[in-house]
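Why do we care about 3D structure at all? Because function follows from shape, and shape follows, mostly, from sequence. That is the central idea of this module. The next example makes it concrete: a single protein chain, its amino acid sequence, and then its structure expressed as tokens.
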Amino acid sequence: SHVLLAVGVDHDEARTAVRFTLPRTLTASLNPVADAVVDAVTAVGSRG
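And the structure:
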């Protein structure tokens, strides 16, 4: 992400990051999405 690089994130980390841009008005409806992201990251991380 060019945005992450611009704020000083390391190139390798920026290349593998998932960045979300969300409106400020989004609150509780984001919970299922956040849960799904956590589950996906956990699953990928457990692969080694």
